[in-house]
Amino acid sequence: MKYYITTPIFYPNSSPHIGTAYTTVAADALARYHRLLGDEVYFLTGTDENAQKIVRTAEAHNIDPKVYVDGVVKRFKELWEALDISNDDFIRTTEERHQKVVQQIFTKLYEQGDIYKSEYSGWYCTPCETFWMENKLLEGKCPNADCGREVELLKEESYFFRLSKYQDTLLKFINEHPEFIQPSSRRNEMLRFIEGGLEDLCVSRTTFQWGIKVPFDPHHVVYVWLDALINYISALGYPDGEKYKRYWPADVHIMGKDIVRFHAVIWPIILLALDIPLPKVIYGHGWYLTKEGGKISKSRGNVQDSFELIQRYGSDAIRYFLLREMQVGSDGTYSEDNVVERLNSDLANDFGNFVSRSLAMVVKYRGGIVPRPGQDGAQEQELKELSHEIKNAVEKSLDAFDPARALEEIWRFVARCNKYVDETAPWSLAKHEEQRERLDTVLYTFVECIRVMAVLTAPFMPGLPSRICKSLGVDEGFIRWEEADQWGILEPGMQVQKGEPLFPRIDISQYMTVGETKIVNQSQNIDQNINQTQAQKETIEAEPTPALEFEPIKAEISMDEFAKLDLRVAKILSAEKVAKTDKLMKLEVEVAGVVRTVVSGIAKHYAPEDLVNQYVVLVANLKPAKLRGIMSQGMILAASQGDVLEVLMVNKDLPGGARVK
Ligand code: MSP
Fold this sequence. Notes:
Strand 15 and strand 16 (about 585-590) form a beta hairpin. Among the domains are: about 1-95 and about 285-330, 3-Layer(aba) Sandwich (Rossmann fold); about 335-485, Isoleucyl-tRNA Synthetase, Domain 1 (Orthogonal Bundle), CATH 1.10.730.10; about 530-660, CATH 2.40.50.140. About 40% of the residues lie in helices and about 15% in strands. It is an alpha/beta fold. It has 21 helices and 24 strands. The protein binds 5'-O-[(L-methionyl)-sulphamoyl]adenosine. 5'-O-[(L-methionyl)-sulphamoyl]adenosine binds near residues 10, 11, 20, 258 and 287. 5'-O-[(L-methionyl)-sulphamoyl]adenosine binds near residues 8, 10 and 288.
């Protein structure tokens, strides 16, 4: 099966942002999923460079428009690379391969009478690149809900495209193909819009020269939307290219809700006029809004630097967040603290923790060798059935262009896997030799669960499978979609390692300025990051610090005395509050290849999930002591003053067992 998927082509009038990235990440997840299904996928993205607003922005920067867009297009390509976008092509509308197709189509439509010359008299919104009749304006401004900006009066000779001629054919098509515009709320909007009556569309401009010239009347440039929509076939080499024959019609054009109208009206009418098949689906998703409710957009200046975000949290985490938070038919809310919250809870705590805990147990109890399982019990049977149910649900959600739902389903499986660890309690099984076979089954099932999780999440977080495969000592050929609900795929005897934590927990206070997201203000210069941190820090530092009462410093000791202390980095494997106390936390820590139990008075300050997988400093040669009936083998270091306490944590690159001196 072939699968042709596209994103809109982006205006390179300024660098891409995390809101614009959503469409591309969603399209990428779908493309990757279809590749895993074995489909022959063609995934297209690109840039829409012939817009009037590009000339305006370039002029404002005193730069030649082509030089300007070349710079911004480079940023787009870099961002897609940083986000692991697997597009097969990147089309720029300033490329000759595109321009010649636009000219050919314009001429054909003119020759067959679908384009005619007349005069346009009306209004134009340059930010939206849209023509408006006077009676549509709202208080004299652009009526687009997201815009509301000044419009300009145009009175110029123009070519017009006979949209009105195709109105009934289009309506009939939409009514006969309910799947054509999705979700259905957008379809209803479009039906109402078309039923309201289509006016012929102005498709050329004469007041500036940037753009594709009308070949038989070069005084005119082609209207940017007519030009842009054609990218979906020019990139395939329309009309004779092999790719065009193989991939057209598109299986889905993914886009934001603001531009569904252009894709559901102008684009199908161009195709109807050319007598070529219409795309199968036009899917319009919502927008990413800020916490305050406004759309994330360059013109609002509320954009955060996407590269900085990816560097901070990793491409997988950003992709996960974007895909997880956008529900079908509504908008998503973006804020950096929400990203951290998702990362810490869903990725570090649920997913990462299961992987590290279970691999640590295979290492601890079987030296890292995956054991041969014994007879399945009811819990293993339940997991198998669940994987089947989840795989089907993920497929159904992705067929309905709903990655958020697909991820929700996968996390049902992740939650079940975590519960399985608690239910089977391998640490207790390990204490009884007669439970050896049961422990083998549990440990084997752990590793199979990790494999299933890696396969199911592969379309969404493409960096993850390779990291998991590394821990499992297998290559990525191991990720086979059809095996996501098959069990017994793993060969007993394979050697696994604990590996690095997949998603280290993030302490947001390192990055956030007080109460507010750090913003990159793009309004002054497209790539100038105006960092608000310094100014805010100064305000904070200016406030007087209340006098503190410190404990007196203790009597001097010699170096030899200090050297008696054996301080080690220790990795926390598990943490649980000690029953009937509010202060004590029982920790299982790994140090120099052994697991120790440590009881620590930190329970008021940390939740167990904040501690698991963290690397702390352990006084390793402290005489064991019993606390609340639990033998504590050492003590972990923490700094405290008054009511504040912070456990000392160490860079994760140091293994449990490293000396602290
Ligand atoms: N150039 C046109 C598309 C032509 S396609 C033949 C265009 N470009 S754009 O750069 O303004 O927008 C591209 C896409 O980014 C649109 O789908 C738009 O909805 C999406 N987004 C822009 N800001 C967004 C958010 N804050 N959230 C989600 N999507 C957003 O329109």
